[in-house]
Amino acid sequence: MLAVLSPAKSLDLSPSAQTAHGTEPALMKDASSLMRTTRGLSQKRIRELMNLSADLAKLNYDRFHSFELPFTADNALPASLAFNGDVYRGLDARSLSAEQLQWSQGRVAILSGMFGLLRPLDLIQPYRLEMGTRLGTRRGTNLYAFWGDRITKQIASKVAAHSDPTLVNLASNEYFKAVKGKTLKTPVVECVFEDWKVHPDEGTVIGFLAKYARGLMARFIVTERIERASDLKQFNIDRYTFQPARSDDTRWVFTRKFIPVEQAK
């Protein structure tokens, strides 16, 4: 079983006490090519491509020009420690042990516009390049064309090594579109997290809450060392419970009663 997450726009670049050894992304050769392309972008073009403010366009222009190869522990951070957003608050990788992070290498992966597919300990340097960006390269007019079937092949090779070859989708639609499901000969399950106010059958996906729950599910996989996708139905963290009547073979729904933030404190 392998679970895939989306990356985060925001980053936490502070030093970490985590001692787990960083690794090199499997698709680093392709990422290096993409880095050369992004170095050729002007601030104006970055602003247009990513719909950013002038300040953020300059920040990312500077980041694209600051890539330093090879990535090492001195100039890069493991992806799961560097990404900082709702998903990664749920995962809270900085509180995991080195042993847990090492185990997660084969069970959790992060889809990335710049790096294709990252393991939790794969080293990255600061960047922002969303998968939906219409960045033209010699491979096509956007990043989906650039990555082609490379991400899918990486996923296929990973799940093939597991007794349960299921791919668990904890990513956004934008990122999961980079996985060519029709050519991936393995079961795929999407986990959906909803909050309800009146009745469990009338739940709603609330963006930031669902993202946090995806991170919690990824953490559950790591801390409980989940080997089989079916065991994810036991997930009951933060009041979520599996709803079999609303689920099917490819879409598993987890719900909880909505509690306003001010009441949850």
Describe the structure.
The protein has 265 residues and is an alpha/beta fold. The chain has one domain (2-264). The chain has helices at 28-39, 43-50, 54-64, 79-82, 86-91, 98-104, 143-147, 150-159, 173-176, 207-223, 261-264, and strands at residues 2-5, 77-78, 108-112, 116-118, 123-124, 167-170, 188-196, 241-242, 251-257. Helix 2 (43-50) crosses helix 3 (54-64).
The chain-level mean pLDDT equals 95
Strand order of the largest sheet: 4-3-1-6-7-9-8
Largest sheet features: 7 strands, mixed
Determine the fraction of residues in helical runs and give it as a percent range: 25-40%
How many independent structural domains? 1
Order of helices and strands: EHHHEHHHEEEHHEHEHEEH
Structural class: alpha/beta
Strand-helix topology:
Blueprint: E1 2-5, H1 28-39, H2 43-50, H3 54-64, E2 77-78, H4 79-82, H5 86-91, H6 98-104, E3 108-112, E4 116-118, E5 123-124, H7 143-147, H8 150-159, E6 167-170, H9 173-176, E7 188-196, H10 207-223, E8 241-242, E9 251-257, H11 261-264
Parallel strand pairs: 1-3, 1-6, 6-7, 7-9
Antiparallel strand pairs: 2-5, 3-4, 8-9
In short, what is this structure?
This protein has 265 residues and is of the alpha/beta class. It has helices at 28-39, 43-50, 54-64, 79-82, 86-91, 98-104, 143-147, 150-159, 173-176, 207-223, 261-264; strands spanning 2-5, 77-78, 108-112, 116-118, 123-124, 167-170, 188-196, 241-242, 251-257. The strands form 2 sheets. Strands 4-3-1-6-7-9-8 form a 7-stranded mixed sheet, sandwiched between helices. Strands 2-5 form a two-stranded antiparallel ribbon.
